[in-house]
Amino acid sequence: MKVPLLDLKEQLVPLRHEIMAAVTEVIDSTGYIMGPKVEAFEKNIASYCGSKHAIGVASGTDALLVSLMALGVGPGDLVMTTPFTFFATLGSILRLGAKPLFVDIDPVTYNIDPDLMSRVLAEDEKLAKKVKVILPVHLYGQCADMSRIKALADQYGIPVLEDAAQAIGAACPLVDGKNKRIWRKAGTIGAAGCFSFFPSKNLGGIGDGGMIVTDDDKLAETMKIIRVHGGAPKYHHAIIGGNFRLDPIQAVVLDIKLKHLPGWHAARRENADLYNTIFEESGVIAENKVSTPVGFYRSAAQAEATLPDYHIYNQYVIRAAERDSLLEFLGKEGIGAEIYYPIPLHKQKCLAGMGYNELSFPESEKAAKETMALPIYPELTDEMQQYVVDRIAAFYLG
Ligand SMILES: *Cc1c(COP(=O)(O)O)cnc(C)c1O
Question: Which of 49, 158, 214, 307 gets the highest tally of CB atoms within 10 A of its CB?
């Protein structure tokens, strides 16, 4: 049996007719830059997320870059973030001449550890003053501990920018003034949140695309100006921006797919639950060979009347003994698995000279050596999942 990591064809086939019609309409309209289709999609994303503004941009990377620019990040500034994420999180900081202030991850969720953040900020007042933005990443589709991160950021007066590239629609529990739990969508808790529509994300386009959400009128205005070269009014440049626009062709495709997103999230979560069950039955967990991902907010979520998307499982990531041999074995068995991410960011060559080593961020190092993502896309069948777990059990237990 062949089980690819991701099969986009399965998603395309039932939507193909509708997508082709919408794309054809854009082509025939000859309106290829911005316009009503982009605006309509922005409105729908804002309403889906529960944010006041949504600003379409050309990629998740541009969403981060534009947001950091709008928040005034520049040379000499520090941005507090995780070393265990996709490179774009770091790249956008470095492109502005700023530097990362890495904080290690929590080994259960793989997200930035609020205890360590608190310690780093408390330890060195001068350092804390240089932190211009706190940039948590909601890795694999599960929110970082935003309740605590937001409280910490407020205490120090630092804005939070959420890298929600992998977590559009993920629900995050916050405690309100009356000590009651409320669920907010990823990206809407900090000053702004960034999404990516890279084809492998839960909401993926037919090319690159991205979006920023914010409730802040002034920030939204600045972002919209930065998106078009900083021109406001047109041809008058008080600030420097770039070309960061979202194409209407992507907007119409994404708008069609957005209607299906809650169903796809639910299907991924059901797949994750099934994996958890059959891994448990297989014996590899009892033998300490594999550990399955923990839905950190799962118990909180299950107390609710309707189950919120506390984890949207953009990736289903296990820890595995002898990870590299297992990966090779699965490849030979026709199973697509991947490592996200094999090299933590503090070990990247572009940061050589910053004085990091193997001991700097031990949990990120460990995660990079032990973890692997398994196929989790919505259309995956029960038989395929059973096969994946059977082969993994065969690798360890014979
Ligand atoms: C995908 C991703 C990005 C970048 O998004 P692009 O649309 O590919 O530019 C940024 N951060 C994280 C965590 C991502 O997974």
Answer: 214
